[in-house]
Structure to design on (246 residues):
């Protein structure tokens, strides 16, 4: 156990430093986060089309967060 | 091991957001005094105390908030209709844009007759413990919170108007 102690201390110190960066963003402070360029999916219509082309070519629906469960009916 | 557990618990406690008692229906609405948003239209300073004896709809909004585009014209229509009927009702919309110019631009597209004020520092929404945008607080004539409405879809206006009508009927 003894040789682990410095490592543990270091890990805890590291966690303290990293977790200090976690701050809740209040509802009224989300102006920047609300910008379209901040979205994970910048253009939902375009990605839906891409997705459609993909599963039509691959005959594999459902593996890419698309609706439906791979029944091939869409 | 005990030290580790204690430290981790202390760390989690420090990181977790402080658990405060949220504002509830029946609580007294926190007072505010905020500068008007639109120069020459909203006045220098708008205070909650100005609306004593009136039913007030305090709406927190921002230019980037999607549902606010829906709520602005509906609230405006309801407010104008009630005011024309001589009802003691007012809407006070608190803009929380970090740059109030964005809020002014928004109102050029969605002009409203009701009062709009600005709070770019977000002190008022913090005091009201706003959890999402938009959030509105309907206050009765004594300044007590009677309805907390989060989010907005167009059918919500009926529910809000029903509550406003109820509060107006309570007035002497």
């Amino acid at each position: 156990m003894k040789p682990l102690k410095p490592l543990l201390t270091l890990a805890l110190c590291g966690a303290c430093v990293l977790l200090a960066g976690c701050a809740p963003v209040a509802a009224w402070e989300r102006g920047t986060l609300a910008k379209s360029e901040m979205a994970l999916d910048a253009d939902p219509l375009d990605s839906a089309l891409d997705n459609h082309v993909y599963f039509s070519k691959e005959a594999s629906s459902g593996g890419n967060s698309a609706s439906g469960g791979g029944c091939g009916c869409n | 091991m005990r030290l580790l557990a204690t430290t981790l618990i202390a760390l989690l406690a420090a990181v977790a957001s402080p658990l405060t008692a949220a504002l509830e229906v029946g609580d007294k609405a926190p007072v505010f005094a905020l500068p008007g948003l639109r120069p020459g239209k909203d006045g220098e300073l708008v205070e909650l105390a100005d609306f004593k004896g009136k039913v007030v709809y305090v709406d927190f909004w921002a230019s980037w908030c999607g549902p606010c585009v829906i709520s602005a014209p509906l609230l405006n229509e309801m407010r104008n209709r009630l005011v024309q009927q001589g009802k003691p009702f007012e809407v006070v919309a608190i803009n929380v844009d970090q740059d109030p110019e964005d809020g002014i631009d928004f109102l050029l597209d969605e002009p409203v007759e009701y009062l709009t004020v600005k709070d770019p520092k977000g002190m008022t929404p913090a005091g009201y413990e706003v959890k999402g945008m938009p959030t509105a607080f309907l206050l009765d004539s004594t300044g007590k919170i009677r309805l907390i409405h989060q989010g907005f879809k167009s059918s919500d206006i009926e529910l809000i108007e029903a509550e406003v009508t109820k509060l107006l009927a309570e007035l002497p």
